[in-house]
Design goal:
The strands form 5 sheets. A 5-stranded antiparallel β-sheet has the order 2-4-5-8-7, with no helix packed on it. A 5-stranded antiparallel β-sheet has the order 19-16-15-13-22, with no helix packed on it. The termini are far apart. The protein is about 10% helix and about 40% strand. The N terminus is likely disordered. The protein has 2 domains: about 130 residues, Immunoglobulin-like, CATH 2.60.40; about 110 residues, Immunoglobulin-like.
């Protein structure tokens, strides 16, 4: 009888150890257990590092590879050559996150996992390191219900920061390129939207007193205004496809713009980016 009890106690102990081991090394979700993965990097994006930014805190736009990892908002903190982002989550379905792959997260000690903090409104926040903006950042998340680590990728958009967040000399401008007053052409690439819209390329550029203006001609007549920052611009033509003259804030990085389309049942503002290629600049006599 004593031997039987001892054997049972031994089995219980082994089971407890095994369960504890599983708790320390949770399983990783495979492809069949994940929703569709979205690409987060857009054409023309180049990494932006902490050394490119002025120290401070900035609300920042983001994109995630999975709709299941619901981020309500993100706050970027830049200090002493380092960046981190505070993610405010839309649900409490995750127990931990990890700045890396799901396999790395599962193998890491439980004490190293990033646990949530609670915001004033009761929502959960996670603070993760950010190596660069406009670059994919692996961020594994541990599901409370599924008890699995899921691979996620997050990208923080540099073009959502105010211009004053960037250090002097960061942007390539008409001034930094030494462009003389005159007329030019440059290749321009449209990003954002549904992917169906088009603009003519190369675009005609005019430089005057160091400031560059581009004539943007859309592939349809169904645009009634554009916005660059808070400034609104209206078509400069009355026939044919809609054409606008807007400032070129910088070259070689996507420049955010808004275009209002009247092609739908009611006017609708759409966020786009325009990338002007400095290498393609040609003077027009």
């Amino acid at each position: 009888m004593k031997k039987t009890i001892a054997l049972l106690l031994c089995l219980l102990a082994l089971t407890s150890i095994a369960q504890g081991s599983l708790a320390e090394s949770p399983a990783v979700a495979d492809a069949s257990q994940m929703t569709a993965v979205e690409e987060v990097v857009e054409p023309g994006m180049r990494p932006v590092y902490a050394e490119d930014l002025v120290d401070g805190e900035y609300d920042i736009a983001f994109k995630c590879s999975s709709s299941m990892f619901r981020i309500d908002s993100a706050l970027l903190k830049v200090h002493d050559g380092q960046m981190e982002a505070v993610l405010t989550m839309g649900s409490k379905s995750f127990l931990y996150v990890w700045p890396g792959s799901a396999e790395e997260a599962a193998a890491a000690p439980a004490s190293d996992r990033i646990a949530p903090a609670e915001a004033e409104d009761g929502r959960q926040t996670y603070t993760i390191p950010v190596e660069a903006l406009d670059a994919p950042i692996p961020c594994a998340a541990y599901s409370k219900n599924k008890e699995l680590w899921y691979d996620r990728t997050v990208l923080f958009r540099a073009d959502s920061l105010p211009t004053e967040a960037f250090r002097e000399g960061f942007f390539t401008t008409a001034g930094s390129l030494g462009l003389k007053d005159g007329n030019y052409t440059a290749a321009v690439t449209l990003g954002g939207g549904s992917g169906r819209a088009k603009v003519e390329s190369p675009a005609a550029l005019t430089v005057e007193d160091g400031l560059c203006t581009a004539r943007i001609v859309w592939g349809s007549k169904n645009y009634d205004y554009m916005k660059v920052g808070e400034t609104q611009y209206f078509p400069v033509n009355t026939e044919g496809n809609a054409a606008f003259e807007i400032p070129v804030l910088w070259f070689d990085r996507p420049m955010p713009v808004i275009a209002d389309t009247v092609a739908m049942s009611e006017p609708h503002e759409i966020a786009y980016t325009l990338l002007f290629d400095a290498k393609s600049l040609e003077a027009v006599s």
